[in-house]
């Protein structure tokens, strides 16, 4: 499986066709960078319920983004995945590694994109919480995600695992099976040097991972998790499709948002 990386730009769940394709295109650098929707390229099919917090966000029964369970009535995902649509038009499917088999569906109820989310500033703060209409029943293979400590940092070179149903190549449909791919954490300065020529910025509240040819994120992986030792450290945001050498995927650094997550859950 390959985790393909695409820049998560103007596409939102409200733009049905764009979101379904999982690729957003910007007008920067001759459309070289698609918008919100990385997908996994390279890697391997996940067997058993090794990632029990991972969910599929769908519109009209079609996978558009990934996410993880925060609590029985709340999902953590990317702001670009819920922007522009009614929360009730989004379905969250939990409990299955296959999109066409099993799983329990929950309708979205209320959405909370980060107040600092800004498409124009390289999708800064691309993180959101989606509350559900019906609660998830925790059981074997379905549990909430483990959050990191607030402010925790990760050393470059550390291996992390990206997980999702994203397509294996730009423009293709989502894969039916859940995939995971192991990616090295990339130094933030190196990541910034890679994207600055394209007028894109990587911020301190983000993590870069990948940049190895044939392994990375792409369509349909936006909003999906990056794990280290079964703890979520990142939410897939944007990148250059797909799995191109020297172009890491950019993830929201979850440790930077732990306080915001808790405050949002407590107040809604």
Automatic annotation (TrEMBL):
CC per GO annotation: extracellular region
Signal peptide: 1-18
Presence of keyword Transcription regulation: no
GO biological process, one term: proteolysis
Family: Belongs to the peptidase S1 family.
Keyword Transcription regulation set for record: no
PROSITE patterns linked: PROKAR_LIPOPROTEIN (PS51257), TRYPSIN_DOM (PS50240)
A UniProt-annotated Pfam family: Trypsin
Predominant place of localization: secreted
Keywords linked to the UniProt accession: Disulfide bond, Hydrolase, Protease, Serine protease, Signal
Top-level taxon in the UniProt lineage: Eukaryota
Residue intervals of the Peptidase S1 domain: 40-266
UniProt subcellular location: Secreted, Extracellular space
Transmembrane segments: none
PANTHER family found in the cross-reference section: FI18310P1-RELATED, POLYSERASE-RELATED
This protein's name: Peptidase S1 domain-containing protein
One Gene Ontology term of the molecular function aspect: serine-type endopeptidase activity
């Amino acid at each position: 499986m390959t985790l393909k990386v695409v820049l998560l730009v103007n596409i939102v769940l409200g733009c049905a066709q764009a979101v379904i394709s999982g690729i957003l295109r910007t007008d920067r650098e001759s459309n070289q960078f698609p918008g919100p929707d990385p997908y996994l390229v390279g890697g391997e099919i996940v067997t058993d319920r090794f990632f029990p917090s991972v969910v599929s966000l769908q519109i009209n029964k079609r996978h558009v983004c990934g996410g993880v369970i925060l609590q029985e009535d709340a999902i953590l995902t990317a702001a670009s995945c819920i922007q522009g649509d009614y929360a009730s038009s989004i379905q969250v499917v939990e409990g299955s590694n296959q999109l066409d088999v099993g799983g329990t569906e929950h309708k979205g109820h209320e959405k909370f994109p980060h107040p600092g989310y800004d498409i124009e500033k390289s999708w800064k703060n691309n993180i959101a919480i989606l509350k559900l209409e019906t609660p998830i029943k925790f059981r074997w293979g379905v549990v909430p995600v483990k959050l990191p400590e607030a402010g925790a940092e990760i050393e470059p070179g550390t291996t992390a695992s990206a997980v999702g149903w994203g397509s294996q190549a730009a423009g293709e449909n989502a894969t039916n099976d859940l995939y995971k791919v192991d990616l090295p954490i990339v130094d933030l300065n190196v990541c910034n040097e890679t994207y600055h020529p394209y007028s894109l910025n990587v911020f301190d509240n983000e993590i870069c991972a990948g940049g190895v040819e044939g392994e990375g994120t792409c369509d349909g992986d936006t909003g999906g998790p990056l794990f280290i030792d079964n703890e979520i450290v990142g939410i897939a945001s944007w990148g250059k499709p797909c799995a191109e050498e020297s172009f890491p995927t950019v993830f929201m650094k979850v440790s930077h948002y732990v306080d915001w997550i808790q405050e949002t859950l407590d107040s809604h």
